[in-house]
Amino acid sequence: MRPCVPEASSLATAVRTKSNAQASCPACYLAATAESLEVFHGISLYGCTSCDLHFWHPVGKPDAAWYEMAYQGRDHRPMPLEPGHRFFLADPLAPKCGRLLDIGCGVGNFLAAARDIGFETTGVEFDRAAVSFAQQHYGLQRVFAMRPEIFRAMEPGAQFDVVTFFEVLEHQDEPTRFLNTAKELLAPNGFVALSVPNRDRWQKGVEPLDYPPNHLTRWSPAALRNFLESNGFEILSLRQESLNVRRAAQVLSAGLRTGLVSRVAGERPPTLTDLAEMSSDEMQDAMKRLSERRGHRVAAWLAHSKSLAMIPSAALLLPYLRWQGETGLYLYCLARRKQHVSSPARWH
Ligand SMILES: [Zn+2]
Predict the structure, then answer these.
(1) Residues lining ligand 1 (ion), CB within 5 A?
(2) Looking at the domain covering 64-243+326-337, what would its CATH class be?
């Protein structure tokens, strides 16, 4: 029987890994000089002393099948717009029309909203079920189930006025390579807009989604600014989501562990880390068992109720937390590609 807790190092060998050579920052390529900040299943988290990015090493991005399995709860129903989507749509510095490509477009909720205000929209997404939903539910024609680099090869001349990638960058093992692909699809002087989880947010304890193989990097405002500026972009907006009552209640609820939810759930549900170690068939079996277990549905309801119960306390605490400078979950950024400036001619 498979152990509930993965063996040390097993995650590192389960996903596509890079060599165990010395860790170097995947954004600025400086070798890690300090001790690791944290170790998780044999993978270390390092903080770059040059660009401020936190990154896991050695680890690689899981394949499309893992994303389809891990995110299957979000690929067959309309989803509300995320904070990053809303910030972009309301950003006075962002364009309001033109050709827009959304990388990791999910079920197409943001693409539909962008189309409705005047953008000519295209999306790419790993998850085939999400792509199918985007086409059928929102009537989006140009949504493709493929990686962005495959899309670029398929439409070599395609150029977009805006390339967006909301909650995508933190999943990349090679963020610079990913940004280069986005740049190749971007018109001269074009915009990128994105959001990532804010590493400096208010939180208590461990957030399981923030670990490999789900998130491979952790971004601060400084890390994001350094990354985009060093890759030829000018930052137009950089916004930390403010802490709201709902998020504060979730954090308080997570910090208040009673054990009741786990007892009701019975067998521990597989984490995203567990899923990374399973074969495709094992993943399907595990998720099917989970969906059939009444205990897990009750546990999910209990967890939700517990968070709701924390709202009065969160509302009381919120002014103090904001005064302390505590922020919400997301970091949003709008940046514009700088025009290439050639070196001035020299007299000889
Ligand atoms: Zn760096």
Answers:
(1) 25, 27-28, 48, 50-51, 53
(2) alpha beta
Distance CA 114, CA 116 (A): 5
In our burial notation (b when 16+ CB lie closer than 10 A, e otherwise), range 204-229 reads eeeeeeebbbbbbbbbbbebbbbbbe
CB of 231 within 8 A of CB of 176? yes
Q: Distance between CA 242 and CA 237 in Å, rounded?
A: 15
User: Mind listing the pLDDT tens digit for each residue in 11-41?
Assistant: 544 444 444 568 999 999 999 877 899 998 8
Distance from the alpha carbon of residue 223 to the mean position of ligand 1, in angstroms:
8
pLDDT in tens, 79-132: 899 999 999 999 999 999 999 999 999 999 999 999 999 999 999 998 899 999
pTM for this model (two decimals): 0.80
User: Residue ranges per domain, the chain?
Assistant: 10-57, 64-243+326-337, 248-323
Largest Cα separation within the chain, whole Å, is 81
